[in-house]
Write a structure and sequence with these properties.
The structure is a single chain. With about 350 residues, this protein is α/β, with parallel strands linked by helices. The chain folds into two domains: about 150 residues, Rossmann fold (3-Layer(aba) Sandwich); about 180 residues, Reverse transcriptase/Diguanylate cyclase domain (Alpha-Beta Plaits). The protein has twelve helices and nine strands. The chain has a five-stranded parallel sheet, sandwiched between helices. The chain has a four-stranded antiparallel sheet with strand order 7-8-6-9, with helices on both faces. Strand 1, helix 2 and strand 2 form a beta-alpha-beta unit. The longest helix has about 30 residues. The chain is elongated and about 80 Å long.
Length: about 350
Amino acid sequence: MEADAMATRMSVLTRALPMRILLVDDDELELELIAERLAGAGFEVHKAPNGAEALELIEQRWYPVVVTDWQMPVMDGIAFSQALRARGCDDTYVIMLTSRHESSDYERGYAAGVDDYLTKKVPDAELFARINAAFNTLALRRSLKAAQEALEQSVSIDAESGAFTARELRTRLHAEIARAQRYGRPLSLITVALHPSERMSELPAALLREAAETLMSVIRAHVDWVGRLEKGARTTFAVVLPEASIGDGPAIKDRLLGALGRLQHPDASSVGFTFGLVALDRGTVSEGATVEAVSMLEVAERCRACSGRIGTEQLEAVRMSVAGHVAIACRHGYAIESECPLRSRVQ
């Protein structure tokens, strides 16, 4: 972004902030003197005699800038700053008024969440400069946060695995569902979860990427695709298979499992895999019914978590599939796991 554009954006963001300041000090005379100086400069000023009452005011409205004394009864400036940050108030700039000069005091204040320091007898020019710098800093923080959020929304590939991000997965799956319903074509989705053994605190990043690349190497290029469903110790991928029916699912699952069994990473032997299958197929979607991407993913995960035996887990998976207008293997005689008793019963 060019310097002029950045300056314009900063100006707009600063103007968008309410020019509201909260002063916290038990010295009434000192409090009034600073309040008059700031009010005369055009700021909206509110006052509190200690940290406890300041927190009550902050519960009712947002104060972009807080100027607080260090030593106060009931709750001093350090305790107040700590309590403020503990409540998640990261978008408030805290200036501490103090006569302390020891480096250890500054370190203690910064650790508590203080952003800047001022002496009580600070000249007007420096006081206004620091206050304006505080508002500019808040505007910059907001700008950076907005830019980060925009960047995260624009990124479609998960950096760790190389698969599509969860956001992109939902967006693309929604489009696939719409296409399948429009043309009356089948669409299947297999979730694949990687389970590290107890001796592994988390899945190594290299193993995660190799697993995603392996899944992508087995499926049809430019037709099927892989997205990352969630992050954490148990990592789950969704393999989306346009034109694949519920009956194709078990064979595809076996092909995926066979490929994953040949992973080359040193820790691959300590990882287990579970699979879930869900599909849009003929007869599963009522006329006019809407199938949601999130619902399809949830049913696949319910199928994956099922033990494959008759019981409450299986009944809940069936109930969810009926409500979501999608097919799962045990409703149609195709078992994603060989021990599923419904396979032999239906066939």
